[in-house]
Amino acid sequence: MKRLAILLSGRGSNFQAIAANCRSGALAAEIGLVISNRADAAGLEWARSQGLPAVCLPSKGLDRDLYDQQVATEIRKANIDLVCLAGYMRILSAAFVREFAGRILNIHPSLLPAFPGLDAQKQALDYGAKMTGCTVHFVDEGLDSGPVVLQKAVPVLDDDSVGTLSARILAEEHRLYSEAIRIVLDGRYRLEGRRVILSSAS
């Protein structure tokens, strides 16, 4: 069975959705490792409560390359097939991205390339966008700039706040991320330049 590593910094709601799909068999994978850079991350505590292998590697004050070497060591030891970022509030080093190229996914709460970086939902509201959503993409050395695997559009309502818009986007994230993981683990895609071409074969 394919093994996933989850990197998180906070509550890890996308991680919990992935874990639920692994348990139910909807996703033919297992959580082989959970790593948080914050000891107080709720997602780390939840992983431990579920009996999942969870490691805290505090990042504060550490050089990015040195820290990412520690993370990479844990991933190698756990024989991980795919690394999934789930609210991981760190920019990965170039060396880490190169080592696991094509094996790191991230989910972002906008229709990239629109509104990259932090506070994407607020960015969409401030801009006056009528449509936003979420994107699962491969991670490259840029900020939210890797090839797009899947996207889901979410309309911006006239009375939306950051909270209401974020909640509707998050509900779609929970579905979309596992679908993208399934596609990547099954090899049902090919890369043509920046384009991820999906295959219907299972």
Written account of the structure:
The structure is a single chain. 37% of the residues are buried. Helix content is 36%, strand content 25%. It is globular, with a radius of gyration of 16 Å. With 202 residues, it is of the alpha/beta class. It contains 6 helices and 9 strands; from the N terminus they run E-H-E-H-E-H-E-H-E-H-E-E-H-E-E. The protein has a 7-stranded mixed beta sheet with strand order 3-2-1-4-5-6-7, sandwiched between helices. It folds into 2 domains: 100 residues, Rossmann fold, CATH 3.40.50.170; 96 residues, Rossmann fold (3-Layer(aba) Sandwich). Helix 2 links the parallel strand 2 and strand 3.
In a few lines, what is going on in this structure?
This protein has 202 residues and is an alpha/beta fold. The chain contains 6 helices and 9 strands.
What are the main properties of this structure?
alpha/beta, globular, Rossmann fold, 202 residues, 6 helices, 2 domains, seven-stranded mixed beta sheet, two-stranded antiparallel ribbon
Question: Mean pLDDT, rounded to whole units?
Answer: 97
User: How does CATH name the architecture of the largest domain?
Assistant: 3-Layer(aba) Sandwich
The N- and C-terminal alpha carbons lie at a distance of 16 Å
Instruction: Please provide the ordered H/E string of secondary-structure elements.
Output: EHEHEHEHEHEEHEE
Radius of gyration, in angstroms, nearest whole number: 16 Å
CATH topology (fold) name of the largest domain = Rossmann fold
CATH class of the largest domain reads Alpha Beta
Q: Give the beta-strand count.
A: 9
β-sheet strand percentage: 25-35%
Q: Please name the fourth-level CATH homologous superfamily of the largest domain.
A: Formyl transferase, N-terminal domain
Low-confidence stretches: none
Percent of residues in helices:
25-40%
Number of domains: 2
Note the total helix count: 6
Major sheet: size, sense and barrel closure? 7 strands, mixed
Gross morphology: globular
Physical arrangement of strands within the biggest beta sheet: 3-2-1-4-5-6-7
Structural class: alpha/beta
